[in-house]
Specification:
By secondary structure, the chain is mainly beta. The protein is built from two helices and 36 strands. The strands form nine sheets. The chain has a five-stranded mixed sheet with strand order 1-30-31-32-33, with no helix packed on it. Strands 16-17-18-19-24 form a five-stranded mixed sheet, with no helix packed on it. Strand 11 and strand 12 form a beta hairpin. The radius of gyration is 20 Å and the shape is globular.
Length: about 400
């Protein structure tokens, strides 16, 4: 019981294990803007990146201008919300992005001593917790009409990074201490000349997930046309499964969800939903693809596996409860009003999801029906995902960074 009372950092995208799960904590389920707001800190610019917490600090990324020339990492005090430091890197050219995806839509990662941030064309950077820059890597230009949004994750002393989308997209591992490249595996661009001329939509914004299968850790990542499992030690491809492409393009937005020995991945822009058994090797499309369902409702955010089912959010504000054995929906229901880009988080046995209007919905991981528990409204636009740390919830809107706590 004492262990459950200890503060648990939320050190990277989707939490300590990268799958949206957090150990049981005494968390607020219902709150209002006065009694439960421990602090709120104004933010100068909007952003889709989510906050992380580590060693009493909160980190997030933010653009400094509309063209994305200035890109910053911000550090705040976790107890008060006071800004402790900011470091900005600049590039000498304007970069494209979609109006709904402001520049710096990535989430940092921290190992307790160092914090790393991915600024796409402005590089991969690492800092001490006091803001001192330790190293910086220029990995090239990453240009896409919809911008970028993948986040670094940490594993065994390394930074694992998927750099897509871009002309050259790759997954790589970097030494967290020195920034040295440990391995790099390039994803081939499979667009034909005709598809390029017709401007076929292509790209992946997937942040990978680490999962152990047998005696090795796999880096699971959805690429534009397939899901790929890389060996975390050397980057070699262990297996891949095709079928993510759809008539609308070669697109992947969300992170994979693992349910037992199954990896679920969704294609973007009304793409398919695929389930893959993870004990294969090589091309497993015909041998280990457990199920395939085409033209699913688009989801930009990532789901969770809870209580024997997979819960995935749709952009239109609905949630699906998926049976991992078949890939079919047990139920599909609207959660509140408004669209949603925020991923689902499981904490204290409950599911939390924030929509684009700033409402956070709390519901049961019930495989039979939607059981709503609470609706908590802030009334500020947002596309980010909550972070949970020490029994408190950290929310990023386009206007503020919030700390939500039990009633004072």
């Amino acid at each position: 019981m004492a262990a459950n009372c200890l503060a648990q950092d939320w050190p990277q995208w989707r939490g300590p294990t990268g799958d949206g799960q957090v150990p049981a904590q005494a968390m607020p389920r219902v709150w209002d803007n006065e009694a439960n707001v421990k602090w709120r800190t104004p933010l100068a610019q909007p952003g889709n990146g989510s906050p992380i917490t580590a060693k009493g600090r909160v980190f997030l990324t933010m653009r400094e201008d509309d063209e994305g020339r200035g890109r910053s990492l911000y550090c705040f005090d976790q107890q008060t919300g006071k800004r402790l430091w900011r470091d900005t890197v600049t590039i000498d050219r304007a970069m494209p992005t979609h109006r709904t995806n402001p520049h710096c839509s990535t989430t940092p990662a921290c190992d307790g001593e160092r914090v790393v941030v991915w600024h796409a064309s402005a590089g991969l950077l690492c800092y001490k917790l006091d803001g001192k820059k330790l190293w910086q890597r220029d990995l090239g230009e990453f240009r896409h009409e919809w911008g970028h949004g993948t986040s670094p994750i940490l594993h065994d002393g390394n930074v694992i990074l998927h750099t897509g989308p871009g002309v050259e997209s790759f997954v790589a591992a970097f030494d967290m201490t020195t920034g040295e490249t440990i391995w790099k595996t390039v994803e081939p661009n499979l667009l034909t000349k005709e598809q390029i001329e017709k401007k076929r939509l292509a790209g992946s914004w997937c942040t990978p997930l680490i999962h152990r299968v047998g005696d090795r850790d796999l880096v699971l990542c959805g690429q534009p046309t397939r899901v790929v499992a890389y060996d975390a030690r050397d980057g070699k491809i262990v297996w891949w499964c095709g079928g993510i492409s759809s008539k609308n393009g070669d697109l992947t937005y969300s992170s994979p969800v693992v349910a037992g020995n199954l990896c679920m991945i969704a294609g973007g822009y009304v793409g398919p939903l695929i389930g893959v058994r993870m004990d294969g090797s090589g091309d497993v499309t015909k041998t280990h693809r457990a199920w395939f369902h085409g033209e699913q409702i688009t989801n930009c955010a990532s789901g969770v596996f809870a209580n024997g089912a997979i819960f995935i959010p749709e952009m239109g504000g609905f949630v699906q409860c998926i049976d991992p054995a078949t890939g079919k929906a047990n139920w599909r229901a609207r959660v509140g009003r408004g669209n949603s880009w925020g991923s689902i988080v499981q904490a204290q046995g409950k599911l939390y999801m924030m929509n684009q209007k700033g409402a956070t919905y709390v519901f049961e991981p019930n495989a039979d029906k939607l059981v709503m528990l609470a609706t908590n409204t802030i009334d500020e636009a947002t596309n980010s995902t909550p972070a949970v740390s020490g029994g408190e919830i950290f929310l990023r809107t386009h206007e503020h960074l919030y700390c939500i706590a039990s009633k004072r």
